[in-house]
Here is the input.
Amino acid sequence: MLGQTAFAQQAYWQQDLKYSIDVTLDDKNHTLKGHLSLGYTNNSPDTLTFIYFHLWPNAYKNDNTAYAKQVFRDKEGKKTWKMLKDNGYLDSLRFSVDGNLAVVEADPINIDIIKVLLPSKLHPGKSIDIQTPFFVKLPTYISRMGHLDQSYMICQWYPKPAVYDRKGWHAFPYLEQGEFYGDYGTFKVNITLPAEYVVGASGTMENAEELANYKTLGAANLKTANDNKKFTSYTKGEIKTLSYTSENVHDFAWFADKTFIIEYDTLKLGSGRVLDVFAYHHDNGLKYWENGTGYIKDAVKKYSGWIGEYPYSIVQAVEGPANANSGGMEYPMITLITDPKADEQRLDAVITHEVGHNWFYGILGSNEREYAWMDEGINTYYQFRYEAEKYKSNSIFGKAIPEEIKAKSVPDFQNAIYNALNRMPMEKAIETHSADFPTKDEYGLVVYFKSAIWLYIMELTFGRDSLDRAMQAYFNQWKFKHPYPEDFKLVLEETFKTNVDQIFEIRKKAGALE
Here is the structure.
C-alpha cells in the first residue's frame, strides 16, 4: 500500500526550463544588452495560453513601483531613494514563440510584470521555444542588483517566467522585503565584458584557461599574507566572453569587478566528491576575508551533514558593498556578502547563513514571498546551531553575551540564547506573508528569529536526532522541487510518527512563543 507521501509525489509536477542567455556588459554606460532563448516545457495538467514574465529591473524605474512604495514606508526610505543616482529598467523586448511574434500585455498595476500571450495553445507535455532580445539599464546599487561605479552586482537581471504550479500563477512585483520564487531548469550563459574583469557566477565556468588562471592565482593567494595578494586574472585582450553552465537551479546571478582578489580551495565531501571553493574580495575590504574559503567550507560540511549533501560542483562567496537592508543575498552556487563592518565571527556567520540558502531556497525551492519562514527561518535555526557549536556565539547578541552563558555546554548555551530571543517583541504570526509585515524590523524579527525559535521548540519536543532525520527526509523527497508548508508537515509527521497539528498551529500565534 502506498503511503501518503508516495501518493503526493506521484501527483506532483513542475515546469521545466532551459535557458540560453547571451549578454554584454557596457561598463561605460552601465548597461546590459542581451538575448534570451528559453525552452519551456509544460508539465502541468493544464493547457496554457499565456506566460507571465518578471521584468525585475523595472522596479527601479520610478518612485511609483511596488518596490519604491515599500522603500518609502521605511523611516529611512527617502534617504535610501536619494542614493539611486541611476534609475534602472528593462526594455527592448520582442518576444517570439516557435518563430511566431507574440503579443505582450502590460500588467495594469506593476511595470515589472508582463503577460506574454502564446500564438497557439501550449498543451500538457508539450514544449515551446521563447526568444527575445532585452536591454537593461543598471540602477545604482541600493538593493540587490546594480552597480557602484564599475563594480557590478548582476542579479534579477533577465526576463524571467513566473512560476506556474499546482496553486496557479505566482506573478508578483519586486520588493526589498520579500524575496523570490522560480522554476528549476538549466542555464547556459555567455557573458561578454572588458577583459580585465574578474567574474563570479551561478555556474561552472567553461573557459578552461580562464578557470585555470583563477584556480592558480586563488590557491597562491590562499597562502599569501593579505598585503601581498594579487588580483589580476592574467586575462589578455580588450574583451572576453566567459561561458557558464548550471543545472537544477532556479536563478542565475553574476558579479564583476576589476579589483577582486580571488581565493581558491577545494572541499572533499563525505561521498568523495570534490568541490571548487572560491571567495572574491577587495584589497581594501574586510581583512577577515582571507579566511573566506574556510568559512564557506565549514558551512558546506555542516549543512551537508545535518541536512543532505551539497549537490553542485562549486560554491562561492563575494564581498560586496554595504547594504542597509541585509548582510547578504543568496543565489545558486554564489552569494553576495554585504556586511563590511563585521568582525571575524560575524563574517563567518553571515557567510554561513547565505551559503546555507543553497539548501533552503536553492535546493528546497519554496515560495519565499508567501512562506519566508520556510527558507529564512529554517536557515537561521541552522546558522544559530553552527555558531553555537563553533564559537559558543550568536551573531544577534555578539559581544553582549555574558561569560557565564558562554561557559555553559552547547545545549545549555543555545537554550539561553533562544530564551533571550523569545523575549524580543515579535507580534506578527510566523505564517504572515512577506509583503504584509508593516516594517522591515518586524519582518526580520519574525521571519528569521521567531521562526528559528519555532524550529527549536520542535527540537525540544521531538529531539534533535529526530528533527535531523526529518530534515534529511524532507531534503531527499523535495530537493529541486517546490515544497509547500503542508508538504513539510507531512514529512515531519511520517518521521515523528505522530500528528504535528499543535506544533504547526504555533505558526499562527501572535507575540512570543511558549
Q: What stands out?
A: The mean pLDDT is 94.
